[in-house]
Amino acid sequence: MATATRLYVTDDLGPGMPVEARADQAHYLRNVLRFKGGEVVHLFNGRDGEWRARVDALGKGRARFVVEEKRRDQRTSPDLWLLYAPIKRARHDFLIEKAVELGVSRLLPVLTGRTQVERVKEERLQANLIEAAEQCERLDIPALEAPLALDARLDGWPSNRRLILCAEAGAAPPIGEALAAARATPDPARPAWAVLTGPEGGFSDAELETLRHLPFVLPVGLGPRILRAETAAMTALAVWQSVLGDGGMRPPDRVE
Ligand code: SAH
After folding, report:
1. What is the 222 CA–ligand 1 centroid distance (Å)?
2. Distance 121 CA to ligand 1 centre (A)
3. With 70 as the cut, is the pLDDT of residue 216 above it?
4. Which burial class, exposed, middle or buried, applies to 14 when counting CB atoms under 10 A from its CB (0-12, 13-18, 19+)?
5. pLDDT tens digits along 74-96
6. What sections of the sequence does the record tag as coiled-coil (predicted)?
7. What separation, in Å, do the N-terminal and C-terminal C-alpha atoms of the chain show?
8. How close is the Cα of 53 to the center of ligand 1, in Å?
9. What's the rounded Cα separation, in Å, for the pair 84 and 226?
10. Which of 96-100, 149-153, 251-255 comes out lowest in average pLDDT?
């Protein structure tokens, strides 16, 4: 079932409301999809659910939609953060796209001792994550934080959140068992969750030592193989969603 083009907008959405497209969206509709006007699109803004809208005016670098009716009620993704050490460009884009598809609510790049920091162009990452959210039919987009040193990120750690440490070294229970145990015996003081993966070079012994001693950190293993950072992030997020998140739900309009 081909679904209509989905576009993320920041405007409020309600019946009959006009919504101006961004210039890049107008270009995409006019020059890539060859829209002429009158076509249907689905709009979402992370607050008001998903609405059917019609392309009302289409010109050079501009497009306007008229919102018609609501298709889906707003549902925010589970409250799951991903802390990750930025990695090389193409793999970084891949990691962002997978994290969006796997429903993270917030992306927090952390700089560790062995992080190979490349100038990360925020607007490119933002465009990538919006495109991934449009494609995977999410109704919200994750927040993207600016990079921060790991110890600074840990200093201000929120008291209600546990941090799953993907530890490639040292003793650690398999993630599936660790999360199943957390589901069986939740920590009422820390209902929220986050995942942390390291850079290509891994965590330093000192970093792992520090992390292991923090009360909110849950070290886990992802099996006997050394996974690339993006594979590790994807694996941990998928297991979390399946055990503690929305992994049991079905995609919209395809439940039968
Ligand atoms: N190059 C390092 C590993 C870095 S892999 C080495 O050879 O040891 C990048 C990150 O992915 C790691 O920091 C860790 O967070 C995660 N990771 C990779 N494999 C893992 C595993 N088997 N168990 C837990 N975490 C893993």
Report:
1. 8
2. 25
3. yes
4. exposed
5. 998 899 999 999 988 889 999 99
6. none
7. 13
8. 45
9. 16
10. 251-255
Structural domains for the chain: 5-72 (2.40.240.20), 80-243 (3.40.1280.10)
Q: pLDDT (tens digit, 9 = 90+) per residue, 36-79?
A: 999 999 999 999 999 999 999 998 889 999 999 999 999 988 99
Per-residue CA distances from 146 to 5, 49, 51, 123 (Å): 30, 27, 31, 11
226 CB near ligand 1 (under 6 Å): yes
Question: Is residue 205 in contact with ligand 1, taking CB distance under 6 Å?
Answer: no
pLDDT of 2 reads 64
Does residue 203 carry a pLDDT above 70?
Answer: yes
Whether 166 lines ligand 1, by a CB cut-off of 6 Å, is yes
What is the whole-number distance in angstroms between the Cα of residue 87 and the centre of ligand 1? 13
**Residue 104, amino acid:** V
Instruction: Specify the pTM.
Output: 0.95
Ligand 1: which of 175, 195, 226 to mutate, judged by most atoms within 8 Å of the beta carbon? 226
Per DSSP, the residues of 56-91 read: EEEETTEEEEEEEEEEE---PPP-EEEEE----HHH
For residue 235, the CA-to-ligand 1 centroid distance in Å is 12
Ligand 1 neighbour 170 (Cβ under 6 A): no
Q: Is the pLDDT of residue 256 over 70?
A: no
Helix, strand, coil share of the chain (percent; to 5): 30, 25, 45
Mean pLDDT: which of 31-40, 85-94, 112-121 is highest? Answer: 31-40
Task: Give the C-alpha separation, 116 to 97, whole Å.
Answer: 20
Task: Identify the three-state secondary structure at position 253.
Answer: coil
